[in-house]
Amino acid sequence: MKKLLGAxxxxxxxxxxxxxxxxLARGDFFYRYLALIFxxxxxxxxFITGTAIEILHEVRQTKKEE
Length: 66
Known about the structure:
Layout: H1 2-26, H2 34-65
Helix pairs in contact: 1-2
Keywords: Membrane, Transmembrane, Transmembrane helix
Transmembrane segments: 29-56
């Protein structure tokens, strides 16, 4: 649950940052929906890598115990 909340916060922050950059450069916050797309992709990448690292850590711990 903590990872999912962290991913959502990261997606929101990155979306806002990219939206502000687009607004400064083009005068349009939703220029070609870049803020929404990259914000969603950043949150998804954060969640996937966090889950993969957690799974790999558990696998490594079980191998050390054997």
